[in-house]
Amino acid sequence: MPASPSSQPIAPQGRQNPRRWALVALLLFWSLAPMLWQLYTSLRTPDALLGGLAAIGRGWTLANYGQILTSDPPFWRYLLNSTLVGVGTTLLTLLLAIPCAYALQRRGGLQRQLVDGALLVAAAFPSVLLFLALLQLARQFGLANNLLALCLPYAGLSLPLAVLLLEAAFAELPRELEESALLEGFGLWQRLRWILVPLLGPAVASTAVLVFLFSWNEFPIALTWLSRSELLTLAPAMARIAGSSVFSVPYGAFAAATVLGSVPLLLLLLVFQRPIVAGLTQGAIKG
Amino acid sequence: MGERRRSLLVGVALIGPALLVLLLVFLWLMASYLWLSFHAQNLFTDLQPVPVGMLNWRRLVLDARFWQDAAQTLRFALVSVSMELGLGLAMALLLNQRWRGRGLVRSLTLLPWALPTTVMALGWRWIFNDPSGPINGVIGGLTGSTVPFLASPSLAWLAVVLADVWKTTPFVALLLLAGLQMIPADLYEALALEGGNARQALLRITLPLLRPYLLLVLLFRLAQALGVFDLIVVLTGGGPASSTESVAGYAYLNAMRFLDFGYSATVMIGMFAVLLLLGGVLLLVLRRPARFQP
């Protein structure tokens, strides 16, 4: 059942509620200040950074961005790698999860409860525990330093959450719709392709964004699978930048890296905020 | 009969691939750790597995660093998850009220959660910097001296907690917001008619009905926090003097720096056992159905 949008706790009406606005301001400061500080840092020269607020008038620069974009390998390379892995993982996960969620939802009963329970446990499982076994697997099959192969464990790790979210979405679709399509002579594939998945649009979108976020942010497995520097994804690249002394007074360049690493996600989140919230909400209700 | 068999086959075909990947990733890999924990596979064995019986396990029990890391990880998880639940609930209550601009604020508060942990961990390292970070800029301006947040064992773990709370509270708030939206408004109206105040509404309606969501978030976050790794690697590197090292970090160190794969697997199984135990106990203690207050 969808949440009824009218279910709001009673709250004092009107705009004159200074306490609430103070809380909202506090919340925004808490959420955004660390990121704004990075943006500020990324635009300052090293001397200006050490000079504090007294030097606010001068010392603005784009050199930090120039430095990380021209280093070897250039920073955009990591963004490209992460995007490639993210898109591959998302496609693979959806391909596996949609049929699975559909069948689980339509089957119902005890089987489904058991599988759902197992999926929930798997979704909460801290993936760092798997890096060693995956590394050995990668060595055995020669999959290390292969960005596309990295999509396999990523898909495995995102499957539980994806199946749970999509299952909740399938439950929303009226069965009559499918039955009438069945009477029209639609096969299973046709029903999925032309009727069910298109109707699931928002849920599929939110699941895709969440899987993409997971893969974009994953660290321990990427750290062990990828060793060639031109193949690094964003997360291990940041860790490597943090551990290296390539940059003499590094924080300006660090900050430029954090800003560039955040921008794609910022855009994704601003565009998909509604489906993300709706999709997670729906999944949480079912779970 | 043929029809049923066909439907079973279709079911298997649909669920099978996903189930196979899941089984491979989770069960098979965990089983391989169990096997590895009874073998030595390190530099002395030329990185070939050699059966050693309980040796790794005996070492784990006697390993002071493992127990220190376990205690540190547990402390980190308990403190940060309780703060996240408290703050997340407050945030969800605020974001559930009706006010102008709520949608935009909802997306903006989600940002910390969406960013890669390693990216912002690097940011926090600069924010906690001594003496040039902004926090020390304020402290230094007020008191004339600065605080070595990341160089002092008693403060570094709190810095890690703060960075984790910053990143994951939005996620907690989002899930709790989902729960809040399921509470029927007439309950609050009925309470208001009886003359109840906001505090009673929170204690008698919101919290009891939110209980399953709180439990779900608690278990989920606890499991993730006990596996903390990325944040610590970048923010403190486990230091100073391994005072912020987590169990996952220790397992990683054993595998990738000391090349002692057998022992690393043992550490991870040990961690997994702690995780299962804690989760089981929590479920037993907390799992009571939500009650409607009359």
Question: Could you please describe the fold and organization of this structure?
Answer:
The complex is a heterodimer of chains A (287) and B (294). Chain A is globular. Chain A has 287 residues and is mostly helical. In chain A, helix 7 (147-172) runs antiparallel to helix 10. Chain A has helices at 18-42, 46-51, 63-70, 75-107, 109-124, 131-140, 147-172, 175-183, 188-199, 201-217, 220-225, 234-243, 251-286. The model of chain A is unreliable at 1-14 and 245-249 (pLDDT under 50). Chain A has a domain at 77-236: MetI-like fold (Orthogonal Bundle), CATH 1.10.3720. Helices cover 75% and strands 1% of the residues of chain B. In chain B, helix 7 (153-181) packs across helix 9. Chain B is mostly helical and 294 residues long. Chain B has helices spanning 2-37, 55-62, 64-96, 102-114, 117-127, 134-143, 153-181, 185-193, 198-226, 230-235, 247-257, 261-286; strands at 39-40, 50-51. Chains A and B meet through helix 1, helix 4, helix 5, helix 6 and helix 7 of A and helix 1, helix 3, helix 4, helix 5 and helix 7 of B.
Radius of gyration of chain B: 24 Å
Please state the second-level CATH architecture of the largest domain in chain B.
Orthogonal Bundle
Instruction: State the major sheet of chain A.
Output: none
The overall strand count of chain A is 0
Assign the CATH class of the largest domain in chain B: Mainly Alpha
Report the sheet-strand fraction of chain B: under 5%
Low-confidence regions of chain A: 1-14, 245-249
The level of helicity of chain B is over 70%
Distance between the termini of chain B: 51 Å
CATH class of the domain at 77-236 in chain A equals Mainly Alpha
Shape of chain A: globular
Which structural traits does this protein have?
heterodimer, A: 287 residues, MetI-like fold, B: 294 residues, mainly alpha, 2 domains, two-stranded antiparallel sheet, 12 helices, globular
